[in-house]
Amino acid sequence: MAEHEEKKHEESFIDKIADKIHGHDSSSSDSDEDKPSKSSIKAKLFRLFGREKPVHHVFGGGKPADILLWRNKKLSAGALGIATVIWVLFELLEYHLLTLVCHLLILALALLFLWSNASQFINKSTPHIPEVQIPKEPVSEFALALRFEINRAFTVLRDISLGRDLKKFLSLCCLSVFSHVDGFH
Fold first, then answer.
1. Domain count, the chain
2. Of 42, 47, 128, 178, which shows the fewest CB atoms inside 10 Å?
3. One domain, residues 47 and 89
4. Do 83 and 44 share a structural domain?
5. Range of the domain at 146
């Protein structure tokens, strides 16, 4: 008798799980108002771990989410290729960022030079390169501020060397001694 009740309980539990998976609820009536729509069932099925928001929305939506989720396969493959090239350059070949920037600037300058000279032979327009001029006012203000800070540093160094500021002299001596002990040269 106990086995029969246990089987019945087990079957009803399995039926409840099956009904939940298939979107049916045995306790609800068969009216259209109580049944969940197909779109809500489909939306719940495609969300992992019971999330409320889709993954596309979690990643911020738009093009970045499309690239991360491989919805635009060409852009995603391009981003993966660029990341791989950067990793190979910096990790495997031990290339440095400053060297890369300098080489890219030299390459851009060479291409612009060739383009401007070749445009005369093939009757094409020369590249439009805007004229860049640095304004006088901000540069002079920066130079004055830098001059003021350098003069102030010289004054502090002069005061230390003349023995007028013993506290700074001792702190610089201790800093110098400890930097040699720690290996900072």
1. 3
2. 128
3. yes
4. yes
5. 139-182
Same domain, 167 and 177: yes
Looking at per-residue confidence, does 16 or 146 come out higher?
Answer: 146
Residue located via tokens 């060297």: 99
Q: 67 or 5, which is more confident?
A: 67
Examine the pLDDT at 108 and tell me if it is beyond 90.
yes
Based on the fold, state whether residues 116 and 154 are members of the same structural domain.
no
Give the other-Cβ count within 10 Å of 67's Cβ. 19
User: What is 104-157 written as a DSSP string?
Assistant: HHHHHHHHHHHHHHHHHHTT-PPP--------HHHHHHHHHHHHHHHHHHHHHH
Each residue of 114-133: pLDDT tens digit? 988 888 888 888 888 889 99
Is there a domain that residue 144 lies in?
yes
pLDDT digits (tens, 9 = 90+) for 138-182: 999 999 999 999 999 999 888 888 878 788 888 878 887 777 665
In terms of domains, do 81 and 46 share one?
Answer: yes
Phi-psi group of 94: left, alpha or beta (phi > 0 → left; psi -120 to 50 → alpha; rest → beta): left
Residue 171: HSE in the Cβ half-sphere, 13 Å Cα cutoff:
6
Residue-wise DSSP of 30-58: S-TTTSPPHHHHHHHHTSGGG-SS-HHHH
Q: Say if CB 65 and CB 56 are below 8 A apart.
A: yes
